[in-house]
Amino acid sequence: MNILAIETSCDETAAAIIQDGQKILSNVVVSQIDIFAKYGGVIPEIAARSHLEVILPVIHQSFQDAGFILSNNPALDDWSKIDAIAVTHTPGLLGSLLIGTLTARTLAILHNKPLFPVHHLKSHIYANWLNSQDQHYKISQETSNFLNSRHPAGRYRGIAPFPREDGRNGHVSRIEKSELPNFPLLALVISGGHTQIIHMPHHNHFEIIGTTRDDAIGECFDKVAKILGLPYPGGPAISKLALTGNRHQYKLPHPQVPELDFSFSGLKTAVLRAVQHELNQPISFPSHQLAPLLSSKQTADFAASFEQTAIDILLEKLEKALLSHPNVRSLVFAGGVSANHLLRTAAKDRFQSPSLSIFFPDPSFSGDNAAMVGAAAFYEIQSGVQPSDPFCINLFPRSSIR
Ligand code: KG4
Ligand code: ZN
Hints:
402 residues, binds 5'-O-[(R)-(carboxyoxy)(hydroxy)phosphoryl]adenosine, 11 helices, alpha/beta, binds zinc ion, globular
């Protein structure tokens, strides 16, 4: 089954064609990250307008990369190869979701294809089912020319091409992923908007057993980066700088939150207070004026100490969750923060055991992409979920995984 998947929940416009939930026939991502780096965060109105400008060329490119083109006219997409359409409809930015869902609805009606609306967090979890050997990211020259003709150079960034064995851009292989997560499993979903521990007894069944009571972990990385004068998105910037810093230089508190819940707003404030204290400034000193006063060593030490504390907090809760769910056979990490290198090594050190397998998505699938939407939709269909009426599907900026 070939699914055309579309993702526009935040600031990435993405389309992919996925075969049987694992094989990536094409995967196109256009990121707006360069636009929002200037502002230090996403501006929803600009994000929605940018999606609108590129969504159709991005979808067209996903057909071209998959080789799904009409034999008598290679410039035209071959819709006969597509069995279903999947689209992120919740949660996310209202205007951004609107562009993806309206496009998917229109295409489903036009080409008479079943349409499956997908929850964004399910997609992040199912990124772990993708065959990472199949990945190839590509914005073709024509697409980037098209985009650059309409926008200042460098405004759009495609993820770097992943070369084929024959040196061309395209599919790498059709090999099945050798090992997939086993059920029951625990998923740690860590993104810009969410921090949740989810128990999955089997496919497409989600029980939230822990959640953040305030900020999400990714949001905390982004806010701490801002205090330290590092660019948006903060996670990769902190992680890179932390490599040069002393992780034990500044002692930051671990919040005492009951059960399996999290809290990250206190950690962000603790970093702010520690920076003010280090610089002998009062707590009324504006946060945006602190960064230029820090030495590069102090900035790196704060990045390292914060990263270590944040990762420790995540893993401590995960350990507690594993103790209360002893039957769990796999641990699955999902969402943008799961790209974090320290988290990956620390989790493997801490939880490696013959009875527990640990899965991280390939780092290029940790952030938002459409391939994971195609994987999630496939397993929904396998679980008996019926398509939605394309005239009726709605979008929800906020909603819980179900
Ligand atoms: O899943 P995602 O791409 O978008 C949402 O659905 O929110 O997650 C984005 C978040 C951002 O907050 C970003 O700073 C964080 O993921 N992130 C990281 C890393 N890479 C991205 N956080 C920590 N370490 C990283 N390497
Ligand atoms: Zn996401």
